[in-house]
Amino acid sequence: MRVLGIDCGGEYTGYGVVEQSPNAELTYVTCGAIRLRPREPLSERLLRVHEELCLIVERFQPEVTAIEDVFYAVNAKSALKLGQVRGVAMMTAAKCGLAVVGYAPLAIKSAVVGYGRAEKRQVQDMVARLLRLPAPPEPADAADALAIAICHLHTSATLAASGCV
């Protein structure tokens, strides 16, 4: 299974693609971040997220999209912008024919690090270890997106093993 993880943000939207082989081995495919310029009109930033994600889906052919649930924002305005970026990411995945699955931040950290209140650096280090990368992925948004993809793969494998899928 190949999963596109998306970490939505107001300045950077991280993406990461991870594949899991039938023997449960994880393989890094790609990662990066879409930089959103605060001075651009919001409509143009949202269009950019859509266009870039379309290109990523077309190029790397994921089977499903995993995305972080919105859980916290500094203020209402930030929460609204984050929600708009997240909505565009979800719509783009759906338009590309991909199922979209959301995960809480605690679930992502638990699946990757084993502790739901892990620090950002711990997540980056564990993502690098799980994917056998020479260094933690940069920027942090890309590492977070890979963590979201890994969370979905681990969750799917657990549900399949328990007969729930």
Please tell me about this protein's structure:
The protein is 48% helix and 21% strand. It has 165 residues and is an alpha/beta fold. It has a single domain, classed as 2-Layer Sandwich (Nucleotidyltransferase, domain 5), CATH 3.30.420. Strands 3-2-1-4-5 form a 5-stranded mixed beta sheet. A hairpin with a 4-residue loop joins strand 1 and strand 2 (12-20). It is globular and about 45 Å long. It starts with a strand and ends with a helix. The model has no long low-confidence stretch (mean pLDDT 91).
Based on the model shown, name its key terms.
165 residues; alpha/beta; Nucleotidyltransferase, domain 5; five-stranded mixed sheet; 5 helices
Percentage of residues in strands: 15-25%
The chain-level mean pLDDT equals 91
Q: What level of helicity do the residues show?
A: 40-55%
Looking at the structure, what is the overall shape? globular
- Helix and strand composition category: alpha/beta
Number of E-type strands: 5
**CATH class call:** Alpha Beta
Q: Largest beta sheet, briefly?
A: 5 strands, mixed
Question: Which architecture per CATH?
Answer: 2-Layer Sandwich
Short description:
The protein contains five helices and five strands.
Layout of strands and helices, then pairs:
Layout: E1 2-7, E2 12-20, E3 26-35, H1 42-60, E4 64-68, H2 76-95, E5 99-103, H3 105-112, H4 120-130, H5 140-161
Parallel strand pairs: 1-4, 4-5
Antiparallel strand pairs: 1-2, 2-3
